[in-house]
Amino acid sequence: MNTEYYIARRYLLSRNRKFFSLSTTIAIGGVFVGVAALLIALSMMNGFQNELKRRILAGTPHIIVRRYFNEPLSKYREIEKRLEKFSFIQGTAPFLIQKSIIKNRERMDGVIIKGVVSAQERRITAVAEKIQDGHFELEDGCVLGIELARNLQAQVGDTLIIALPFGQQPGFLPRAKKVILKGIFNFGYYDYDATIVYMDLKDVQSLFRMKGQVSGIEIKVRDIYQVVQYSKLIEKELGYPYRTQNWMETNHAIFGALKMEKIITFIVLTLIIVVAGFNIVGTLVNMVKKKTKEIGILRSATRLTTVDALRNE
User: Fold this and answer.
1) Which InterPro entries does its entry note (predicted)?
2) Sequence ranges of the domains in the chain
């Protein structure tokens, strides 16, 4: 039998003729569990973050163009034409956002009314693809989220009342508009499903007496991770008093918390791997100390073998 093979087998195998001893198995198992926990936890965090990002972007435009202090835009069509020069822009859509009250029979709730042009909105967000019941039709109607529909106990075909509770001047009566519920969407994100009501842009302008005005312009770009650079180019083109807001800024708090959670998880699981590594080092040190005599004999035998080889030469 080869001498090197015999010695290696002798010290790898335990006394019970097993390949690894109990202490070696525990040390290697600790590293295995630590690395597995790290990979699984980070994969779950990345998957959760990507899924949350997908749901948020389904209803959030990549970039929004507004005026400072959120003043309404009156020449939004001219702005859309000026934005056509940028090749990274895939689509634009005007929108008008106002807070209001919605009522269905005896139930009512505070909501955010978003007036859009349905044909353009389809190119910016995925609201038309997220319709769970009914259709994305806004003519003399509205579309709202599944959580809001449950709160109002509303179904497709019901007649809802959109009310502006206060008049613009003292003594004026509140304004209201009856709309038919045309569809119910489900983004899977509670803030959207419980608060947003989509209506036709002209109906919202008429209800809030903002004819020819919008809150801003939604923009969809090719690369969602380059929105910061795109925003700077758009602001440079439009100039004051226009400003941009991208989806990263809009949801900064959510993604900031997720990033911090991922970092903390990585640190904790890395400590698990470090502890397992110390277990292996400790096991090897103890093994070397226990086999000091055998190591000395092997070194002596190696020297004798070398001397004999030199003599034979």
Assistant:
1) Lipoprotein-release_system (IPR051447), MacB_PCD (IPR025857)
2) 63-245, 255-280
Helix axes 227-238, 76-83, angle to 10 degrees: 120
Element of type H or E holding 160: strand 159-164
Contact call for residues 85 and 223 (beta carbons, < 8 A): no
Residue 297 token pair: 């004999």
Contact predicate 68/243, CB 8 Å: yes
3-state helix, strand, coil in the chain (%, to 5): 50, 25, 25
8 SS3 class: helix
Q: What is the pLDDT along the chain (313 residues), one digit of tens a residue?
A: 566 666 666 665 655 555 556 666 776 777 777 778 777 877 887 787 777 777 777 788 899 999 888 888 888 889 999 998 898 999 899 999 999 999 998 898 999 999 999 889 988 988 888 899 999 988 889 999 999 999 999 999 899 999 887 655 554 567 788 999 999 999 888 888 999 999 999 999 988 888 889 999 999 998 888 888 999 999 998 888 899 998 888 877 777 777 787 788 778 777 877 877 777 777 777 777 777 777 676 677 666 666 565 566 6
0.85 exceeded by pTM? no
- Quick one: CA dihedral 142, 146, 148, 152, positive or negative? positive
Residue 86 CA, distance from chain mean position: 27
Distance CA 307, CA 310 (A): 5
Q: What CA–CA distance (Å, rounded) separates 90 from 148?
A: 31
Which are the contacts of 248, defined by CB distance < 8 A and separation ≥ 6? 227, 228, 255
157 within 8 A of 122, measured Cβ to Cβ: no
Annotate 223-263 with DSSP letters as a single string: -GGGHHHHHHHHHHHH-TTEEEEEHHHHTHHHHHHHHHHHH
